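Sequence only, no structure available. Ideas?
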Amino acid sequence: MQNMAKPYTLGYRAEHLCRRKLQRKGAIVVRSAASKGLADLLAIFPQEKEIWLIQVKRKEMPKDESKLKERFMELSKLKGEYKVKTLLFLRRNGRYEFIEV
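Reply:
I predicted one. Tokens follow.
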């Protein structure tokens, strides 16, 4: 009998493969564990000053690519230029706050 991996395991494997490919391209990769949001991975390319938001799918690309793009329209709406801030979130005098670094 074949070893039937669970969908989560298959998805995790696809994310791990994607992460390794991104790292080979020079990216710093952050994984959103058990993501139900818009992106599974965030790839930061310091040299290029680019950030990629990536939704990983383990299935084959459908013949009708437009349906896939329509399904992920919310993700594509995030394209554009952003101001990037680097922050810490920590306690000062017993209260949590954001501190710019």
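The chain has three helices and five strands.
Hope that gets you unstuck.
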